[in-house]
Amino acid sequence: MSLSIAHPVVDLLRTPNGPRDRQLLFGDDVTVLARTEGWVEVAAAKDGYRGFLPSDAVRDTARATHWVSAPATHAYEAEDFKSPDRASFSFGTQLRVQSTGDRFAKTDQGYVPKAHLRAIGDPLADPVAVAETLIGTPYLWGGNSRFGIDCSGLVQVACLACGLPCPGDSGPQERALGTRLPEGSAYQRGDLLFWKGHVAWVRDPDTLLHANVHAMAVALEPLDAAITRIAEQGDGPVTAHKRLFD
């Protein structure tokens, strides 16, 4: 049975009442695998990630038509930015637009600024540019939203926004994404560097862009300094340098 997420952000748990593994956003499609009292086990359509959600976190709804392409947005009660806001939605949230006016799109969640929406099937082009819009987002283990995100969440959010399939965790990302480059290869924008349990975008040949505990945020860091810091803190060397684009 296919349903979609009914709340702005929902933790995808390893077990009922267990630890958060990832997060799902309003409008994300899921397949219900099983139901227990108060809980549903689901698989996320975007990456196959499995976990548990409270039963009220999913709903049967019409397919989304647009997605939020601003870092975050609000849904208002009326076509007026001074009207009360009903909800806040993160980058990547999927919504069904019912009609549009001069400045706002009407959805079943309220009125959302048209400038913050993009049609489903209309991807962005540069995943690093997407990740750059999330600089300053607080670090959150397992996070996938503008309100909190981790290293693999940042990679997945940026890839999916650009129409690139992407697993949810750094280990599967290392195996699935891009082409592995020989050690000592030059860095270029859009490359990914992997460590055991960590991943970072190459923003330019001298700079990494990643969600990290050192800054507790999505932040820029000098590339060579980051490699040294990560090794010295005990997390080891770079395990892979991958290139997404030729």
From TrEMBL:
UniProt GO BP: proteolysis
Keyword Nucleotide-binding: no
GO molecular function (one): cysteine-type peptidase activity
SUPFAM superfamilies: Cysteine proteinases
Entries under Pfam families matching the protein: NLPC_P60, SH3_16
Every NlpC/P60 domain range: 121-245
Gene3D superfamilies according to UniProt: endopeptidase domain like (from Nostoc punctiforme) (3.90.1720.10)
Keywords: Hydrolase, Protease, Thiol protease
Keyword hit for Membrane: no
Recorded superkingdom: Bacteria
EC number: 3.4.-.-
Sequence similarity: Belongs to the peptidase C40 family.
Protein name according to UniProt: Gamma-D-glutamyl-L-lysine endopeptidase
Organism for this UniProt entry: Tritonibacter multivorans
Name of the gene encoding the protein in the UniProt record: ykfC
